[in-house]
Write a structure and sequence with these properties.
Order of helices and strands: EHEHEHEHEHHEHEHHEHEEEHHEHHHHHH
Strand order of the largest sheet: 2-1-3-4-5
Number of helices: 18
Largest sheet: 5 strands, parallel
CATH class of the largest domain: Alpha Beta
Number of strands: 12
CATH architecture of the largest domain: 3-Layer(aba) Sandwich
Radius of gyration: 27 Å
Strand content: 5-15%
Structural class: alpha/beta
Helix content: 40-55%
């Protein structure tokens, strides 16, 4: 644990002081108000419960000896309810048994009165650091369960198209305006959002991605706004960036809730009456035009205009195929160590084939191809034009017949679907595109 810094401040932290002595409350308020974002003080456990119902606090400084309910009893109840705040217990009368009981009840620190300002600052710093580490660990576990971390890829490319995108991200990153990232599936919207965050003045704060299309409305609402006993992603992202991917898939009711948060900079956890201040930059992503969704009545016009302060469109891979050699080299260099395999050689003829293909799954499809090729030990270019398995001669895609890119793309997709016996979800995974994109292509051909 780092040594206390008497000059450190915590602009996003909320602290509650619970002590029945007016002199001690004033001492703690004076020590903390210039350092924390919000500090409140009450004189009993019952008042503290009411305050914790109304507002969210990161840390509670709690006296053990209080009129009515004791501090230890309140601490046990908070832990039984799953309350996430850190607690520093203080007392004028303590022995070893009391200290042990306090730590068993869930206290993060224990101070014996009288104490100096530096001791209070150190205890608060350590408590907030513990809270930060818990948030980071939770986000890391969530990221590992969901996908390969986006740092494994990167916005690679030296084409005019990619240089224009990189320049746009640099311009927008320095301001806190809401950004809407649009583009086909697989073009790298999360990578662009991460680049905006890393180039911003808040790069040291959390970057929290959430896919709005992968869970039920109730689960997304609880994930975003939290619920009793669990903070939401808005809280985890405080001071940083919250990336709402596929924001167009949010139900209309949740769209209204999100709009209110953006307008008031306050949010309310599910099942709670407390209002939590929000200090988060929102970056939203969508693989379909939200303006068309507004016209179809599936997306709120007021939320669209709130998100679209700045709109950046990510280019499909087909529009900058000159970047394919750099992308291939990048994926081989980053994925081979992760997989624990040797790199592969790509011949000029194979690279030529890669640059002729239309890439309906964009950069994600190219990445998936390189990953599969590394696993088998060689680049299989024919996988772009025919099924890796050929269970039916009439459905396998060879290079006989029309060789224009649209025909090759159609034959390749049809062959992959046939190779997995019509399982479109599995076919979409193999192709590196979304199920929705595959269904749209399918509807055009059938």
């Amino acid at each position: 644990m780092k040594h206390p810094n008497p000059d450190e401040s915590w602009p996003h932290a909320a602290i509650l002081v619970v002590d029945d002595e007016p002199g001690m409350r004033n001492f703690l308020l004076k020590a903390l108000q210039t350092r924390a974002g919000r500090v409140a003080a009450v004189e009993s456990a019952e008042q503290a419960e009411a305050e914790l119902q109304r507002h969210r606090f990161d840390l509670v400084i709690l006296d053990i000896t209080l009129p009515g309910k004791s501090g230890l009893t309140l601490l046990r109840e908070l832990r039984e309810q799953g309350h996430p705040c850190e607690v520093v217990l203080i007392t004028a009368y303590a022995d070893l048994d009391t200290a042990i009981e306090a730590l068993r009840a869930g206290a993060g620190d224990f101070l014996l009165k009288p104490f100096r300002v530096a001791q209070v600052i150190g205890a608060v710093q350590h408590g907030l650091e513990r809270a930060r580490l818990k948030r980071e660990n939770w986000l890391l576990r969530r990221s590992l369960q969901a996908r390969t971390p986006p740092e494994a890829d990167g916005l690679v490319g030296r084409s005019i198209v990619m240089k224009g995108l990189q320049a746009a991200l640099h311009r927008v990153a320095t301001v806190d305006s809401t950004v809407l990232l649009t583009g086909e599936s697989g073009t790298g919207k999360e990578l662009a959002a991460l680049a905006l965050h890393r180039l911003s003045p808040h790069a040291a704060a959390p970057f929290v991605p959430v896919n709005c299309a992968t869970a039920s409305p109730a689960a997304i609402e609880a994930d975003l706004f939290g619920q009793p006993g669990r903070d939401g992603l808005f809280v985890y992202a405080q001071g940083g960036t919250l990336f709402l991917d596929e924001v167009g898939d949010l139900p209309l009711g949740l769209q209204a809730t999100l709009l209110r948060v953006l307008e008031t900079r306050q949010m309310r956890p599910v099942g709670s009456q407390q209002e939590i201040p929000v200090s988060v930059r929102i970056v939203a992503g969508s693989n379909r035009p939200l303006r068309a969704e507004v016209e179809a009545g599936r997306f709120r016009a007021d939320l669209y205009w709130r998100l679209q302060v700045v709109e950046i469109t990510l280019p499909p891979l087909a529009s900058h195929k000159e970047d394919i050699p750099d992308l291939v080299a990048h994926f081989i260099a980053t994925l081979a160590p992760q997989l624990g395999v040797d790199g592969i050689e790509v011949t000029p003829d194979e690279m030529h084939y890669l640059q002729q293909y239309s890439w309906p799954g964009n950069v994600r499809e190219l990445r998936n191809l390189i990953e599969r090729s590394l696993i088998v030990g060689a680049l299989n270019v024919s996988a772009l034009y025919q099924s890796l398995e050929r269970p039916r001669a009439q459905t396998s895609a060879s290079l006989d017949g029309p060789t224009d890119l649209q025909s090759l793309e159609k034959r390749h997709i049809l062959a992959v679907v046939a190779s997995v016996d019509g399982d479109k979800t599995r076919a979409a995974e193999l192709l590196g595109i979304s199920r929705r994109t595959l269904e749209r292509r399918w509807a055009e051909w059938m």
